[in-house]
Amino acid sequence: MLRRLSFGLLVAGISSLACLLVLEVVLRVTGLQEDFFVQLDPDVGATYIPNKSGWFVFPDGRTWAEINSYGYLDQEWTIEKPSGVTRIVLLGDSYLAGMEVPVGQRASDELARVLNESCAGRKFEVLNFGVIGFGTAQELETLRHHALKFSPDLVALFVYTGNDLYNNSRELDVEPNRIHYEIDAAGKLERLPYVVRDNAIKQWLRHHSRAFLFLRSGVKRAQALHLAMMKAGLMQEMAVKDDSPAPTLRGFQYKRNPPPPIERAWRITEELIVETKRVAGSADAEFVVVVVPTKEEILDTVTPAEVGDDMDLQVPVQRLEAICEARDLKCLSLANAFASRGTSRIEDSFFKGGGHWTAVGHETAARSIFDWLRPDLCGRN
């Protein structure tokens, strides 16, 4: 009996290993599974893997991605700023990073191009520090630990209305491996303890096994489906062990009268933006905020009957504009820039799968930022 059981387990193990090897070969040959580009970092939360290159696969296609030696999706930089060059640092998440579009077509590339073509006698470098999954806390720490050493003259913080509010709040966030802040009893920001949850085995598998990445993505997709089914009432909430209110408060950034967790998230977000400005100012860099709306907010076609009388898709942009006015921040909302191009152009600006900017979207954002900053940048002495 014991011998038969051992033999059965051996056969099952060999069969499973053979299936994994076949899956590995299929995924590598077909390119169905993207490479892995992100590494966790105790100071800033995450960067891309320095000098990594490979195919980034997303619902609408795939692009070849190349990471520079500092761990960012951009061309190689020098720490020392060249003489006579104005350096602009961009901080943001996956919208800014633009891994879905080819090199040379991202907002940072287009902004650098139009600045150098239009501002006679002046030279500009635009450094893209965008990283997938970032919230404002990670962007603040990126400025503090990485970007300042490149001596920026201007720092632009991209704030995405779709999920930054949730990423900035520990009680709303569903991602454990993210840096968070809270506001202490004195009303000041306090960084919470952050420990990188990783090990050498997982790192090796992520860097070398497409099958591991494929199965890992499947588990995450199953978890997302589980939460979606809970929200739709197709699965009991008690079936998921999750103490976070995020599944039920997702989308509540659009409420005119949001519940306390959302208000607390807004306060944290406001203080993070102000602290980012302070850190930029400590290096004598100017600071601006770029508000990145979702496609749904730009189109604003959802009726009250669909979302409820207390919901307004313009609330996040309005809240950020109010923060900018109250805290004396120079802010640009990209909503009008996209809306002015018409519905068909808006549709062309966003990928259908995932909602990130296409090359058209990156060009629209860059041109809008250029028009906004041109009087200051082109008029520098």
Task: Give a description of the structure.
By secondary structure, this protein is an alpha/beta fold. It has 15 helices and eleven strands. Helix 1 packs across helix 7 (210-231), helix 3 (107-118) crosses helix 15 and helix 14 (343-349) packs across helix 15. The longest helix has 29 residues, at 2-30.
Ranges where pLDDT stays below 50 over 5 or more residues in a row are 220-248
Q: State the total count of DSSP E strands.
A: 11
Given helix and strand content, the structural type is alpha/beta
Calculate Rg over CA atoms: 22 Å
**Strand neighbour order, sheet with most strands:** 6-5-7-10-11
Q: How is the CATH topology of the largest domain named?
A: Rossmann fold
Give the number of domains.
2
Name the helicity range: 40-55%
- Provide the succession of SSEs: HEEEEEHHEHEHEEHHHHEHHHEHHH
Q: What is the assigned CATH homologous superfamily of the largest domain?
A: SGNH hydrolase
Individual helix count: 15
